[in-house]
Amino acid sequence: MKKEFSLTKEELKSFRENGYIGPFDLYDKEEIIEKYKKIRADLFDREHAIYDLSIKSVISGYDRHFDVNDLSQHIMQREIVDRVGDILGPDLLCWRSETFPKYPGDEGTDWHQADTFGHASGTPQIKWPNPDFGGAITVWTAFTEATEENGCLRFIPGTHEEMFYDESLGMEYKPEDVNNLEKQGMKRGFFGYNYQNLQKDPDWVPDESQAVSIVMKPGQFVIFWSTLMHSSWPNSTTNKTRLGFAARYVPTCVEVYPGINEVEEYGSVISLDKYGVVLVSGKDDYNLNRVAQTNNKGLEFRP
Question: What is the C-alpha to C-alpha distance for residues 56 and 77, in angstroms, rounded to an integer?
Answer without folding.
Answer: 29
